[in-house]
What we know:
Helix content: 55-70%
InterPro entries: Cyt_c-like_dom_sf (IPR036909)
Number of strands: 0
Strand content: under 5%
Largest sheet: none
CATH superfamily of the largest domain: Cytochrome c-like domain
Protein name: Cytochrome c domain-containing protein
CATH topology of the largest domain: Cytochrome Bc1 Complex, Chain D, domain 2
Number of domains: 2
Shape: globular
Amino acid sequence: MKILIIAFLLVSSVFSLSLKEEIEKCTTLEQNENRLVCFDKIAKKIKPSQEFITKGYIMVTECKNCHGKNWEISTDGEMLVKDMSEEEIYNSLIAYKNKEKKFLAMNFQMSKYTKEEIKFMSEYISYEIMTSK
């Protein structure tokens, strides 16, 4: 039994490492179009759970009222959500939650969520951006 568990952990870590390497490769590409094609290939390999899709959809539906169906609208003159990485989305949302960035609507919206929920939302938004191209 221990051997099976160790084998599973080794296979899982190899997959994670190769996925991480693929993502890093994509980020080094110079042209945006090539980078997007690279990320699209990765996104198609990843099959999220139905729970992830459902929960994410519910949590960010309200966000799209202001940011657009495809995250193409900036409401405060900053970077478009569709052009942000998962980390940038998370950091931006946390800054609104902590009122480090002042924008009344976003400060109010983010005050409703925990850091864990904001992390989840960032993951879902990033996933949705990657798979919608």
